[in-house]
Write a structure and sequence with these properties.
The complex is a heterodimer of chains A (263) and B (258). Chain A has a domain of 168 residues: MetI-like (MetI-like fold, Orthogonal Bundle). The two termini of chain A are 31 Å apart. Chain A is built from twelve helices and no strands. The longest helix of chain A has 39 residues. By secondary structure, chain A is mainly alpha-helical. Chain B is mainly alpha-helical. Chain B has a single domain, classed as MetI-like (MetI-like fold, Orthogonal Bundle). Chain B contains ten helices and no strands. The longest helix of chain B has 39 residues. Classes of the chains: A mainly alpha (263), B mainly alpha (258). Chains A and B meet through helix 2, helix 5, helix 6, helix 7 and helix 9 of A and helix 1, helix 4, helix 5, helix 6 and helix 8 of B.
Chain lengths: 263, 258
């Protein structure tokens, strides 16, 4: 069973190309074609990463970045969901908030950084707040769209069975909007991760972004690659891990992004 | 009529926000040193624009943005179409493309600087990569999402090869390609500004960073307004072009924010 899965084209070809790339890289470095100063061999990078992991310093950076990502997400998710759901339900709130969001949303998220640290200084709050702004807008808009897309018959059925107020919200509205909400959360975490890393590179000592920038400045190239590998790993978890999680949690739901052909 | 009403309503809350901002400044709740009022900001911004200083930075940012977008567009669409149509290519290249997609491209900046040196080329290369990856992934997804029954219908009417591609496949994938362009441009703008914040002398990012560091609140806010206007023009401009090119495409309010 496992063997046949490994041998199928879906698994075999991607594995082979990835492995071939790494092998070619390794060989070219040893042959002297690729300069080891720029492109250290994958085995060297792995060894450096292993050493850093044993030293414990690495975990501090990983934990800092993950902590910042989660903290900024928390700052964004609660008000974002509440305002978004309210925007979807009450037309007055929508008319007031929607234009403001449309003005704020296209502003590149990182441009808020100079403005935020102008008031908060180069503090932890400055980093967190910057990384929370665009996720907040994304979550709110997706939540509003989720309520708008609710099917009338569903609400009517809920009401006819006697659900009203809080019960209607918990038993009908929330389950029906969950896929949309989850999509918003996923997109928000993706954007939040980009901004977190960018902000760390610009202004933080700790965290993977700070570690990456620092190791480039003192030209510890293997460590730089190590940081890059970890950032890539986190990125993959944020991008594809959540997608898989959504499939597991809501198997009846077609992935909304995939259905539109844009991931 | 209803349309005009919708437009006028859309302006109410931003206008109220600006008026409240101005009133708060007049009452003295907002200290002038930290938060310039709209009535102070507007002449300052006009002054910066007419002196040409802001234009210099704006054009540096625009130059980087447009160059990287143009470099990325054609190869990304071609590769995306090929990946969408060939399963083998997709299986072979997706591991690389998907990992590149998941990495925040700004994290590649040190690596690119190491190889290309610290110069303009580095910035533009990293920005091009950002656009390229996003547009390739979106185009591939667009081709994959084309309705099978549409393809079958095309084939039944005798379209094959180039004609099938030109009249059936490509138009169906076009909306996704356009979304990729819009998201790609947005991400590239974020990247360009982020890099400019610390590693450039010119550009809106450099200007806003200097303003913040020297506590020049009016410059800071002016630069923020210009960056916002730029992001705005790109997002809504491309949406407009998309509507004009693909009038059959349904609009949804949330799609704008994807």
């Amino acid at each position: 069973m496992l063997l046949s899965r490994l041998l199928s084209r879906e698994v075999a070809i991607p594995l082979m190309t990835s492995f071939a790339m790494l092998a070619a890289w390794e060989t070219l470095v040893h042959a002297g074609v690729l300069r080891a100063a720029f492109f250290p061999a994958p085995t060297n990078i792995a060894r450096t990463l292993w050493g850093l992991a044993l030293g414990g310093e690495l975990w501090l950076h990983v934990a800092t970045t993950v902590g910042r990502l989660l903290a900024s997400f928390l700052i964004a998710v609660i008000p974002g969901t509440a305002i978004g759901l309210a925007m979807g339900w009450w037309i007055e709130i929508r008319m007031a908030a929607d234009p403001l969001m449309r003005i704020l949303f296209p502003i590149p998220s990182i441009a808020f950084f100079p403005l935020v640290i102008f008031y908060l200084g180069l503090s932890e709050w400055g980093l967190l707040l910057t990384a929370a702004i665009t996720p907040f807008l994304l979550i709110a808009v997706q939540a509003a769209a989720a309520v708008e897309a609710l099917e009338r018959p569903l609400l009517e059925a809920g009401r006819n069975y006697g659900a009203a107020g809080w019960r209607l919200f918990m038993r009908v509205i929330l389950p029906a909007t969950l896929p949309h909400l989850f999509l918003g959360y996923r997109l928000a975490l993706g954007v939040g991760f980009i901004v977190t890393v960018a902000v760390e590179m610009i202004a933080a000592k700790h965290g993977l972004g700070g570690f990456l920038w620092h190791s480039w400045q003192i030209l510890r190239i293997e460590e730089m690659y190590g940081a890059l590998v970890l950032i890539g790993f986190l990125g993959i978890v944020v991008t594809y891990g959540l997608e898989a999680l959504a499939d597991r949690l809501m198997p009846w739901q077609v992935d909304l992004l995939r259905a539109k052909g844009q991931r | 009529m209803a349309r005009r009403q919708r437009y006028s309503r859309a302006f109410i809350s931003p206008v109220i926000a600006v008026v409240v901002w101005e009133l708060l400044a007049i009452v003295g709740v907002l200290p002038e040193k930290y938060v310039p009022s709209p009535s102070q900001l507007a002449p300052h911004l006009l002054g910066l624009l007419s002196s040409g200083e802001l234009w210099r930075h704006l054009s540096a940012t625009l130059y980087r943005l447009s160059l990287s977008f143009v470099f990325a567009l054609v190869p990304a669409v071609l590769l995306g179409l090929a990946l969408g149509m060939s399963r083998t290519m997709r299986l072979a290249l997706e591991p690389i493309l998907n990992s590149l997609y998941a990495i925040p491209k700004i994290a590649l900046l040190p690596l690119v600087m190491l190889v290309l040196g610290v110069n303009e080329r580095t910035l533009i290369f990293t920005a091009t990569l950002t656009s390229f990856v996003q547009m390739t992934v979106s185009t591939t997804g667009g081709v994959l999402a084309v309705d099978r029954s549409i393809l079958e219908a095309g084939k039944n009417y005798g379209a094959t090869g180039w004609r099938l591609f030109r009249y059936v496949l490509f138009p169906s994938a076009l909306p996704a390609i356009f979304t990729g362009m819009r998201i790609g441009l947005g991400l590239t703008l974020v990247l360009v500004i982020a890099v400019e914040l610390t590693a450039a002398q010119e550009g809106l990012g450099a200007f806003i960073w200097t303003a913040g560091q020297t506590f020049a609140a009016k410059n800071l806010f002016s630069a923020f307004v210009v960056i916002g206007a730029l992001g705005w023009t790109l997002a809504y401009g491309l949406e407009r072009i998309g509507q004009w090119l693909m009038p059959w495409q349904q609009r949804s309010s949330a799609a704008m924010f994807l």
